[in-house]
Every structure is written in C-alpha cells, then in structure tokens.
UniProtKB/TrEMBL annotation:
<feature type="domain" description="MAE-28990/MAE-18760-like HEPN">
    <location>
        <begin position="5"/>
        <end position="196"/>
    </location>
</feature>
<dbReference type="InterPro" id="IPR040788">
    <property type="entry name" value="HEPN_MAE_28990"/>
</dbReference>
<protein>
    <recommendedName>
        <fullName>MAE-28990/MAE-18760-like HEPN domain-containing protein</fullName>
    </recommendedName>
</protein>
<dbReference type="Pfam" id="PF18737">
    <property type="entry name" value="HEPN_MAE_28990"/>
</dbReference>
Length: 210
C-alpha cells in the first residue's frame, strides 16, 4: 500500500506535468499574439486550480492516513483532537440548553476523548486559498510551513488575478517570464506543505508527548 509520501508525490507529479504541458504550448505560440495571451490566462487559472487542489488533497490525505492509525483523541495534540471534533462542536453550538451542556460535559465529552479519532469535517479552501487561510489550516493540522510567508505576495496575486479571470475581466499576463515567477512560488509552497505533512506523519507529531 502506498504511504503518505507516495500519495503526495504522485499527486504533485501529475500536476507538474500538466503545468509543464501548458508552458510548452505557450513557448510554442507566436509572441504577442492572441494565442499567447489566451494561453497565459489559461495557464494562470490552471496554476491556481493546482495550488488549491493540491493543498486540499494533501490535507485530506493526511487526515485519511491518520484515521487509519486508529489513534484515540486523548492521545492527540489539542489542535488535532479539536479538529476531529469540529463537527460535534458545531452541533453543540446549535443546542446550548443547560441540559445539553450538562450531558455533554458529564458523559459525552469523556466518551469522545476515549474514542478513536475520525475527521468527518475536512479543512476547506473557500474557493479562495489566500495565505492567511493556508496558514490557519496548516496550524489546525499542527504543522508550520514557512515558504508561504516568503511567497505571500505572489500567492495573493495568484488568487486575486485568478478571480479576475474567473469573473471575465481583462487581466493580462505580460509574458511567460512573468507567469513562471508565480508558478515557481506556488510549486514551492505546495512542496513545502507536502514536506511538513510527511515529516509530521513520520514523527507522529500529532500525538501528545509522553
């Protein structure tokens, strides 16, 4: 069975291959033509979709692999235990009678702590994976990628311009060199997330220290 490293590597590989194919098509297009400009806009939209898509895939894969370990919530760090109970906590907020709170505090919470952790509610991108949301989701998983901070400006621009394209606005990418700057930033941020998740899983940093 493939481990988390294999799963994330395979997902990155097909995404990078598709981006490389787009780059090749842009390079082959006559310069300063409608074809080149159209391909650059298309590449930008595809780049964003792979950035968001990989991050979502990586978070889900991490949680899926963690579920397979059958770890009790009481053995998890507070961040991970809280994440596994996110759906339950949302339901509780909608039923805040005195009786509900007493029942939860006296019996249900203890049961949940001693149960195997599952992650019924996964992390979301809100279809706009800005750097602050990327950081929040990484923090919820107990990991701290650093390259998102170094490339926050590029990622903000990637999201913003992708929204312009999605809304049919006339957003122009100057040339392949401009595009490659943002592709490089996005790929570095994606790889950094993968490395952090793999290291966390291999070292079991999601568990409370003895």
């Amino acid at each position: 069975m493939p481990d988390l490293s294999d799963v994330l590597e395979a997902d990155l590989n097909w995404r990078e291959a598709e981006l490389a194919s787009f780059t090749a098509a842009i390079m082959a297009a006559p310069k300063s033509t409608i074809r080149e400009k159209t391909l650059l806009r298309g590449a930008w939209a595809i780049l964003y979709s792979h950035y968001e898509g990989f991050c979502k895939f990586a978070w889900d894969a991490y949680l899926d692999e963690l579920e397979k370990k059958s770890v009790k919530r009481s053995e998890l760090t507070s961040e991970m235990a809280a994440l596994s109970l996110r759906k339950n906590f949302k339901s509780l907020r909608g039923a805040l009678s005195d009786k509900d709170l007493w029942e939860f505090g006296s019996t249900k919470f203890l049961e949940m702590q001693n149960s195997i952790a599952t992650f019924e509610e996964k992390l979301e991108t809100d279809s706009n994976l800005w750097p602050n949301l990327y950081r929040d989701n990484a923090r919820a998983l107990g990991v701290a990628p650093t390259l998102i901070d170094q490339h926050a400006t590029e990622i903000k621009t990637l999201v913003s311009r992708r929204n312009d394209i999605a809304h049919g606005q006339k957003m122009i990418i100057k040339d392949i060199q401009e595009y490659k700057k943002y592709e490089s930033a996005a790929l570095l941020v994606m790889h950094d997330l993968a490395v952090c998740l793999i290291e966390s899983f291999d070292t079991e940093s999601f568990k409370l220290k003895a």
